[in-house]
Specification:
18 strands, alpha+beta, 14 helices, 6-stranded antiparallel sheet
Length: about 550
């Protein structure tokens, strides 16, 4: 319950801080600059649909006001129209100045700013429509004069020749032209006689000119008459427009409004926050009930053949702050210098540079380098962690034929036969899912005969692996090489669900038909370790070393 309340408190505090920050920069900061009012705060909570409905109402009201002002303009005299027009021009310039001002970062999604800008645009359109109506009203007299002039011009064309009359005249013109051409085609003597005695060609030519001129005159008269009539119709139409002034329809201000407002973004941000908070828990549920059981059924890690190891490592007495080690005939002690508390006077003690020359890097990285080698039957040596007040020491005997998987970092000393270094073999498990999940791809197996003296925070616990034992991954010090090493799902769901426990715990179990093995774990792995940034760097370095079994 305490963990649940702590999580709720942290989440609630995070939400309040986010809400306060957004509220300040969106509402309070513009208000400090004088950009918000109570009405603006109310508008900023509107949705896109509400903004569009409000703009539709504003357009309807602006259209009604425009029609009333246009109707009133028809009753004003020339002076009143001029005065009204000057005021509208000034208002249009002021609106253009406001529209030209740059907006804030959130003006395109804040409903209050969207409404303010769209209302300015709507007002400008109304001003333009009213100016057009006033200009139309001021042209009324000029249009009346244009009607009078067009009507006077039309009076000259009482009767406009019809197209049929023009066609008949043009036909007579063609006939007269044909008779003249026929006369010109006669014999020269005949033409001369007819011209001298009858004056026939002069008469024919005169008739042709008369009929053709009449046809062209009628066509020109019809064209001018029709143009005069069209001018009268157009002048009367323009006069009718000036006499019946109507307000132009205003444009729809909702066009171009963004589909997203501050309210929509706030709702989406809330959904995103919920997703961020819930997705880790959803993943944990899937991992616990789906992924973890699949992993647990995978093949375990076995580092030695059970039939080849008939003897199990032995441990007696448990761990203690100081351990006394007495060497038997033919034995030697390799101990870290910082763990050698006391030694007998006159003992044969020398320096051994590495635990094993076959594993130079492992010896250096695990600290098993620059060791003190002690020999001499019957000599008793005190082993203790002088620099770590929380560490305790335990001894694990490895008879011939036994093997123990051990992390070298936990070694404080080794007892082995003189001149016969304890065999240390490396085992890689690159294709095991359990190895990748524990982030340990390489294991070091120590073979007897000999004894391993190990250390651990607040003590080392040595348990039989009968029936299988579960433990925390950071507690592992070693286990019998013939046992089955796996990861298994954490026993309880809620502690893992709320982040109090890891998904997997390590497990060491006996193999059917083999001797029961042992498990070596550290009581308190974090006891005496550093905290802070330096501890984090050391922990990362330790994790890398663990992957290589060090």
């Amino acid at each position: 319950m305490r963990a649940v309340l702590a999580w709720l408190g942290r989440t609630g505090l995070l939400y309040l801080l986010l809400f306060a920050g957004i509220a300040f920069f969106v509402f309070a900061w513009p208000a400090v600059r004088g950009g918000l009012s109570g009405e603006s705060l109310r508008h900023d909570a509107m949705s896109v649909e509400a903004v569009r409905e409000q703009l539709a109402e504003d357009r309807q009201a602006a259209q009604a006001g425009l029609e009333a002002r246009v109707a009133e303009a028809g009753t004003l005299g020339s002076e009143g129209l001029a005065e009204r027009r000057g005021a509208l021009v000034q208002e249009r310039a002021a609106i253009d100045g406001e529209l030209a001002e740059g907006g804030g970062w959130l003006d395109s999604i804040r409903p209050s700013r969207i409404l303010a800008r769209k209302r300015l645009q709507l007002r400008r359109a109304a001003v333009e429509a009213e100016l057009a109506a006033i200009d139309l009203a001021r042209e009324k007299d000029a249009r009346q004069a244009a009607v009078t002039r067009a009507t006077s011009a039309l009076e000259e064309y009482r009767r406009i020749p019809t197209e049929r009359a023009i066609a008949i005249s043009r036909g007579l013109c063609r006939d007269a032209t044909a008779e003249l051409e026929a006369f010109d085609e006669r014999e020269a003597l005949d033409r001369a006689a007819r011209q001298i005695f009858l004056l026939q060609r002069a008469r024919l030519d005169s008739e042709r000119r008369r009929t053709c001129d009449l046809a062209e005159s009628r066509a020109a008269t019809r064209e001018r008459g029709l143009a005069a009539r069209d001018a009268v119709i157009e002048a009367r139409a323009r006069l009718a427009e000036a006499q019946d002034i109507l307000a132009a329809p205003l444009p729809d201000p909702a066009a171009g409004v963004s589909d997203t407002t501050l309210r929509d973004i706030a709702l989406r941000a809330l959904l995103a926050l919920l997703a961020v908070l819930l997705i880790p828990f959803t993943i944990r549920v899937l991992f616990y009930y789906v992924f973890a059981p699949i992993v647990a059924r995978g093949a375990p890690i076995r580092l030695a053949v059970p039939s080849g190891l008939g003897i199990v490592p032995q441990a007696e007495g448990g761990s203690r702050p100081t351990l006394s080690v007495t060497l038997a005939q033919g034995e030697e002690l390799l101990v870290r210098q910082s763990y050698l508390q006391s030694s007998p006077a006159g003992a044969d003690m020398r320096t051994q540079w590495l635990l094993s020359w076959g594993s130079v890097l492992t010896s250096l990285a695990s600290g098993m380098a620059f060791l003190t080698r002690a020999r001499g039957a019957g000599g008793t040596y005190g082993i203790s962690a002088r620099e770590d007040p929380f560490a305790e020491i335990a001894r694990i005997d490895l008879p011939r034929g036994s093997a123990l998987v051990m992390q070298p970092r936990a070694l404080a000393a080794i007892v082995q036969p003189e001149g016969q270094p304890m065999p240390v073999r490396s085992r890689w498990r690159l294709f095991s899912l359990h190895a990748w999940l524990t982030f340990q791809l390489r294991y070091l197996v120590f073979h007897g005969p000999g004894a391993l003296i190990v250390k651990g925070g607040r003590g080392v616990r040595i348990e039989p692996a009968t029936g299988g034992r579960r433990f925390g991954q950071d507690q592992l010090v070693g286990f019998s090489a013939h046992t089955a090493y796996t990861v298994t799902r954490s026993e309880t769901f809620l502690p893992y669900f709320f982040g109090r426990e890891p998904l997997f715990r390590d497990r060491v179990a006996d193999v059917d038909g083999a001797e029961p093995g042992i498990l070596v774990i550290e009581e308190a792995p974090m006891a005496g370790r550093r905290k802070g940034v330096r501890a984090g760097l050391e922990g990362a370095f330790d994790a890398v070393l663990k992957a290589f079994g060090i």
